[in-house]
Amino acid sequence: xxxxxxxxxxxxxxxxxxxxxxxxxxxxxxxxxxxxxxxxxxxxxxxxxxxxxxxxxxxxxxxxxxxxxxxxxxxxxxxxxxxxxxxxxxxxxxxxxxxxxxxxxxxxxxxxxxxxxxxxxxxxxxxxxxxxxxxxxxxxxxxxxxxxxxxxxxxxxxxxxxxxxxxxxxxxxxxxxxxxxxxxxxxxxxxxxxxxxxxxxxxxxxxxxxxxxxxxxxxxxxxxxxxxxxxxxxxxxxxxxxxxxxxxxxxxxxxxxxxxxxxxxxxxxxxxxxxxxxxxxxxxxxxxxxxxxxxxxxxxxxxxxxxxxxxxxxxxxxxxxxxxxxxxxxxxxxxxxxxxxxxxxxxxxxxxxx
Length: 354
Hints:
Layout: H1 2-5, E1 10-15, E2 22-27, E3 36-45, H2 48-54, E4 71-78, E5 90-93, E6 96-98, H3 104-107, E7 118-119, E8 138-142, E9 147-148, H4 155-158, H5 164-174, E10 183-187, H6 191-202, E11 206-211, H7 216-223, E12 228-231, H8 235-239, E13 245-250, H9 259-262, E14 265-273, H10 284-288, E15 293-296, H11 302-315, E16 321-324, H12 329-337, E17 344-348, H13 349-352
Parallel strand pairs: 10-11, 10-13, 11-12, 13-14, 14-15, 16-17
Antiparallel strand pairs: 1-2, 3-4, 3-8, 3-17, 4-5, 5-9, 6-7
C-alpha cells in the first residue's frame, strides 16, 4: 500500500489528472500551530465543486487534488491559543480555511470575500502549500475556520450544511427571507435546492418548487413538504403564478431562461442566484416594471455559518443524505454529474478510509 499511495502522515483519496479518477494517496499535513485545531475526519459531503477541480473544469487544478469541503469530525489536538475548542469536540470545516484576518471583510466576519482567502482544497494556504480537503483521515485548520457542531446533531447530516446549507442560508438571511407567511420559489431540487426548501419551511414560508422533471413532484411535496410543485416547462402552470412570489432562490446551474421566473415575483420581489449558468439574460422589463431585483451569492462567513448550524439544530433542519464508503466515491461523483442523488452524498470517512 505504501508503494501505491506514497508517504506521509495523512491518508487520503486524490485525483492525479483530468480524468478525475480518485485513488489512495498519502501526504503530510502541517504540524498543529498555536492557533490550530487538528480534526479526525468522520464524514465529508460530496459537492459538485469536487467534480470541477478533480476534472480541471476551470483550468486551474493543482494535482494531486484531494477534494472535499463539507467536513465533520472530532478534535484530537489543539494549539495553546485555540481555547475555544477541546479534545473530543464535534466540529466542522467548510469551504475556506484561511484569510488575511485584517481587511474589512475579515473584520466583518465575512472572510469569504477576503482577496486572500484560501479555499479548503486546491488553493494556496498562508504557508505556500496547496490545501487538501476532506477526503482524508484528518485536517489541521486555524481555529477561526472551525465550527462547533451543536450537541446531539447527527454528524453525517451536519456535513452538507458546511457548503450546501450555508450557500442558501446566507442569501436568504441577507435578503430577509425569514418572514413567516411570505412566499418562496425554489428553482432546482438538488443539494442546494432541497436545503432552500427546508430553510423556507423552517422560516414559515409558503414554498413552491420549480423543476423541469415531473418525477420530482412527489419528492418535493411528500418528502420535503413543499406547499406546491410546478413543472417549469408548463406555460399554463407558470402563468398561473404571475406576481405571486416574494422571493425566489435559483439553484440551477444549467442554462435556463430568467424572464419567466422574474414575472412570478411580486413588486419589489427578489431572485437570488446561487447556481452558475453560463449567462444571465433577461429583459429590462422584468426588473424595471416591477422594481424587482436579481442578486448573486456564494457562501457565508464564519459568524453566519456558526449561526446557521445552531439554527438547524434548534429547528431540526436535517439534509437528506446518502451515506457511502470512500471506495464508492468515483461512482458517486459520476452519479452527481448524472444528477442521480437524493440529495447529498456523504462519505463515511471514519469507517471506510483505512
